[in-house]
Amino acid sequence: MRQLVIVESPHKAEAIEALYPGTACVATVGHICDLSPTPMNGVGVDRNTLQGEYVLTSNPNRSTDGVRFVSEIRRRLEEHPDILVTLATNPDPEGESTAAFLVKHLGLREYRRVLPHAITKDAFDRAWGRSDAINWAKVNEHEARRVINRLVGSTIDSFLGTSSDKQPSPFYPLQVAVEALIVERERAIRTFSAKPFYTTRYGFDGWQAQWEPSIPRPIVNGPTPNQFYDAEDLNPRCHSRASAEHAAGFPSLLVLNHFERIEEVAPPPPLNTPAMLRAAARQLSWGVGKTIQVAQQLFDGSRAGPGLITYHRGSGRSVGRSVAMTIRARLAEERLPVSDGPSYLSEQIGCGGIVPTRIELEQAGADSDQQALYRIIWERAMFSQLRAARFALKRVELVDPGRGQQKFSATSRTMIEAGWLGTAAKIYAWDTAYGNVPAHLGTGPTLPLLSVGPILRRQTCAVEECAAPAPLRYTVDSLISALDRHGLAHPFLLPGIFRRLECDGFVERDGLFHATEIAEKRYDALYPRFAFAHINYAIELEQALRLVLRQQLDGIQLTRKVWERLDSDCSA
Asked: What one-character DSSP code corresponds to residue 503?
């Protein structure tokens, strides 16, 4: 039986035709359906059914669009009714939604849905051997997101009076959260004053204990303020010198607790989308758009050859067993320290991190940009299977011997085995921002062996005045890090969000993000009046959409709640 394979990218289509001569493969060049740019009713969402008003895309400036694509494929199917249609769109929710719309608008009764995680013959052979059905959980999640984004975007345009012929941004309210972080950072920089804080250190026989001030967190009624989410250093700080001097007033301290253990620090896992964007920003000084473009080229392949990396828009960071074993064999040949067993392993095909399709290729790519990004991806995949570094960790906790209200502690780490840190020192420097590696590893004096209960007389004591570092403007790296920390680094939406920032009055200059006066006025008009302008709202919405994806929450129900809250905020 003849078959017709449908994908999104023309380069991917070329690569598949080169892998399987005689197989016809066509590209939609993006999605074929979207919410109507000129809806017949309000915002293009039915108030009763909460279904979006979807139409086939139509754009004469594109090589193809939904209208022309569907018309052409229908004509082919009428001329050749024996053709088997294979839907090989991307494995993410948008790719699944595109596949569902293709089934609907082409009127397909029989079709195959395949999910190749890479554009290689091996990946397609395995995918074709296990044809899947449409994953409606992914479709429902994606359509709920699209409808909610349209509702929020239309509300913003209507409230700010910025309605125009163009559609609202498809990235709200996640877009609002990103912009809130940048504005709050702009204001933190503007209002910063070097307010000193104080700490107290007690010196004993060759080691020191540091005071741990007990600073109560402020009680917040209602949603957590946006400026809280912008804070990078949440360690408690004492701004009262008198309190620090009081903590320094004890001639001796009581040993409350003492423990020691072996601490293992694993190498960083393979890259996912946020990690790849951060790595390219740090190491290559690339923006988000360029990194995604080059990664797409590496994934798609072409007539000249198959894809060089696995799917590049996902949050997974695992590696398949066969790839892990190939890496481990290569590391062993080079006499490098290999972990005791495969690390970051996933038995689920297509849900892992971004890794080379041919791990034996240390260098690959059609040009210098592809080669540079491929090298980063290759290195991270290789390092993931190195042996963990091992440290002897000792920690002692002390209190004042009277009331036991003032707490102190000391920690030491002594390296026992360098593991991956001895092989990939530069990765250690790059990745401390991920939190994979504790700061100041192996530094400081070794603590003595202590028992619980004795009182130690101090040898020295000093109150130190410290200056808080001034806040810095966001870079691509630090902004994605902040989003990742709050669960907002959506792998598919990040490129569009960064592209949209300039439209909303934000400027990237010398690699730093600035909020213009227009952007700040826009922010003040929305925050705190609207719930969606709160970063906490975006966090909770992303959590709810993940429940929709897991079929633990109904997307229609979530959309109804969002719309009701929008009505309430607009009438307030």
From this structure: G
Q: How far apart are CA 503 and CA 451, in angstroms?
A: 62
Beta pairing, strands 208-212 & 196-203: antiparallel
C-alpha dihedral, 486 to 501 to 282 to 383, nearest 10°: 50
Nearest residue to 101 via CA among 131, 57, 61, 145: 57
Least confident of 116-125, 341-350, 549-558: 341-350
Q: Exposure pattern of 137-155 as b/e (b: 16+ CB <10 Å)?
A: bbbbbbbbbbbbbbbbbbb
| Residue labelled with tokens 């769109």 | 89
User: What pLDDT was estimated at residue 234?
Assistant: 67
Q: What is the pLDDT of residue 434?
A: 43
Closest CA to 410 of 418, 419, 402, 399: 399
Q: 209 in helix, strand or coil? A: strand
Q: Which helix (H) or strand (E) holds 238?
A: none
State residue 424's pLDDT score.
Answer: 62
Complete domains list, the chain, with CATH? 3-134 (3.40.50.140), 150-190+472-571 (1.10.460.10), 193-263+392-415+450-466 (2.70.20.10), 273-383 (1.10.290.10)
Q: Per the structure block, which two tokens stand in for 193?
A: 């004053």
Report whether 52 contacts 146 (CB < 8 A).
yes
Residue with tokens 């360690």: 235
Averaged pLDDT score across all residues of the chain = 88
pLDDT category, 428, cuts 50, 70, 90? very low
- In DSSP terms, 356 is beta-bridged to 309
CA end-to-end span of the chain: 62
Q: CA 332 to CA 327: how far, in whole Å?
A: 9
Residue 169's pLDDT band (cuts 50, 70, 90): low
Measured between alpha carbons, how far is 263 from 271 in angstroms, rounded to an integer?
24
